[in-house]
Amino acid sequence: MDRLINVAFFVARPGRTDDLGAGLLALVEQTRAEEGCLRYEIYQSSADPHGWMVHEDWRSRADFDAHMSTSYVAGFMARVPELCGGDVEIRQYAARA
């Protein structure tokens, strides 16, 4: 199976930057413990504090799909419309080396 790398970009609504960051950071420990998670990191933009990025690396698409179906990810994703000022931009990559 091919590895799957995702980079997701979030922009917080005005006044919700800390809430968005806390929500993203709350996912880290459980996600890193998941079967198939090779990397899961959260970054806050140094140029725009409202911008956040998630960089995740999965052993396979099946592992990522299982991650997305967990209750904690579903709970966070349900809050995204109240936390973010627009759509989350997700870019997916396949590892080639």
UniProtKB/TrEMBL annotation:
GO terms for molecular function: monooxygenase activity. It holds the Pfam family ABM. PANTHER family: ABM DOMAIN-CONTAINING PROTEIN (PTHR33336:SF3), QUINOL MONOOXYGENASE YGIN-RELATED (PTHR33336). PROSITE patterns: ABM. Residues 4-93 form the ABM domain. This is Antibiotic biosynthesis monooxygenase. The keyword Acetylation does not apply. Keywords: Monooxygenase, Oxidoreductase. InterPro entries: ABM_dom, AI-2_Isomerase_LsrG, Dimeric_a/b-barrel. The lineage of its organism: Bacteria, Pseudomonadati, Pseudomonadota, Alphaproteobacteria, Sphingomonadales.
